[in-house]
Design goal:
By secondary structure, the chain is mainly α. Helices cover about 80% and strands about 0% of the residues. It is built from three helices and no strands.
Length: about 140
């Protein structure tokens, strides 16, 4: 390109670009026309193999998602049962404390002096055995 080309309009360059593209397209078309049937068969086999692999992966993912969902539901059920059991134990322990206090007050009134009851209060927490039993149920 010399200095005189700067004054030309862009149509010259567009024509050259279009010719270059036509040559490239003709070369591609000739190459495709020269392909044999075996190349297409190989390509079809690869595509079929990829489709099968993709289908297998999707199925595997679906099964994994289902398993994870079931595991989440199982943990939620266990958590709910543990919370219910803990609430019941706390309620029963509180009722036992009230009962012992009422019993002590009644004895103190009858005897007329302070009384100590040697009965330990109920536990307000879950034991390991209770937790294990609830977890094994679900």
């Amino acid at each position: 390109m010399d200095i005189g080309d700067f004054g030309r309009d862009m149509s010259y360059y567009r024509e050259m670009l279009e010719e270059s593209r036509k040559k490239d397209l003709d070369g591609i078309r000739q190459g495709e026309a020269g392909k044999d049937k075996d190349g297409q068969d190989e390509w079809d086999k690869k595509m079929k193999k990829w489709d099968e692999e993709l289908k297998r992966i999707r199925e595997e993912n679906r099964r994994e998602q289902k398993r994870l969902q079931e595991e989440r539901l199982r943990r939620k059920r266990i958590r709910k049962k543990l919370m219910e059991k803990l609430a019941l134990k706390k309620y029963l322990a509180r009722q036992d404390e009230i009962h012992q206090m009422n019993e002590r007050i009644a004895i103190e009134r009858a005897v007329g002096e302070d009384v100590y009851i040697e009965k330990p209060p109920l536990s307000k927490s879950l034991s390991a055995a209770e937790i294990a039993a609830i977890c094994s149920e679900c």
